[in-house]
Specification:
With 290 residues, the protein is an alpha+beta fold. The protein has a domain at 48-212: Glucose Permease (Domain IIA), CATH 2.70.70. It has helices at 5-31, 48-52, 189-195, 255-264, 272-285; strands at residues 33-38, 55-59, 69-73, 84-86, 91-98, 105-114, 120-133, 140-141, 146-150, 162-167, 186-187, 205-210. Strands 2, 3, 4, 5, 6, 7, 8, 9, 10 and 11 form a 10-stranded antiparallel β-sheet that branches. A two-stranded antiparallel sheet has the order 1-12. The termini are far apart.
């Protein structure tokens, strides 16, 4: 059967529109990746496994403040530096990297577990300020497996300790500032572990979602030290001021920064006389003279 040219073009147009309409759904399905792995049979503490023997919780969790727990060895100081850190349950490593500023080496592990109502749920456990990492992205780990060692953060920023978090929102990753800082996103780690300490051993695998948060590290863009070239600075002479050499160009200030300086900076000098008048009034009220 021969179709009229106009009808053929109409059918081709409809097919093209259908393909465009389905494209977001298809790409979305591909973006949601899963890894098949074991359901957790319980949760242990990340130090002194399984009961945190020899360690203490130096700082606890509180919403809108400290979003995890800090764990230290009982010996104090840096005596616990290099101590092993363990995965709290079976899971899949969804982040393992040196996040640089404020964090240093970080490992995040995703766990599937069964709620009391029988439903499968997921949490992320985060292990921060590590001296070194023993697992890489995509590794499958078991309960009590060593994932790193206790450290002092980047450039020994802190005394040795483990910063430990449990998140119920799987999108957070290392972008905490984009999310609420409360129980809608985080669990109190100790409370969660105690609640799910013992779970039925199932020996079954379930799909665990991965690639749910950005793995980019914005800190990598700002780690290099920035300073003006030595040639642009002139020594301060007696009674004088340092200034750029006249035959050298000044460093260029971005236009966006200049706009802020011009529109939001008040270059008007302080009115010292007005300040003195106010002070005189205060001193007069107290019965004194300035």
């Amino acid at each position: 059967m021969i179709r009229p040219p106009n009808l053929l073009r109409t059918q081709q147009t409809l097919l093209a529109f259908a393909a465009v309409a389905w494209l977001p759904l298809l790409t979305g399905a591909q973006a949601q990746q899963t890894v098949s792995y074991l359901v957790a049979d319980g949760f242990d503490y990340p130090v002194g496994k399984p009961n945190a023997a020899g360690y203490r919780k130096a700082r606890g969790f509180y919403p809108n403040g400290h979003l995890g727990e800090d764990w230290n060895g009982n010996g104090g100081g840096n005596t616990d530096r290099g101590d092993p850190i363990y995965s709290i349950a079976h899971g899949v490593v969804v982040y393992s990297d040196d996040f640089k500023m404020g964090w240093g080496n970080v490992v995040i592990i995703r766990h599937a577990y069964r709620e009391k109502n029988g439903q499968i749920a997921y949490v992320d456990s985060l292990y921060g300020h590590l001296d070194r990492r023993s697992v890489k992205l995509g590794d499958r780990v078991i309960r009590g497996q060593m994932v790193g060692t206790m450290g002092c953060g980047p450039r020994d920023m802190y005394m040795a300790h483990l910063h430990f978090e449990i998140r119920k929102n799987l999108e957070v990753g290392m972008n905490r500032s984009d999310f609420k800082r409360d129980y809608s996103v985080y669990h109190s780690p100790t409370s969660f572990i105690e609640k799910y300490r013992r779970l039925r051993q199932e020996f079954r695998r379930v799909p665990i979602p991965v690639n749910t948060f950005m793995r980019s590290n914005p800190n990598l863009l700002t780690m290099d030290r920035i300073s003006a070239p030595e040639a642009l600075r002139e020594p301060i002479a007696a009674g004088g001021e340092g200034a750029p050499l006249p035959d050298e160009p000044r460093p260029q200030v971005p236009e966006a920064v200049m706009e802020v300086i011009e529109t939001q900076t008040d270059a008007k000098p302080a009115e010292a006389a007005a300040d003195r008048n106010f002070w005189d009034k205060v001193m007069g009220f107290l019965g004194r003279k300035s």
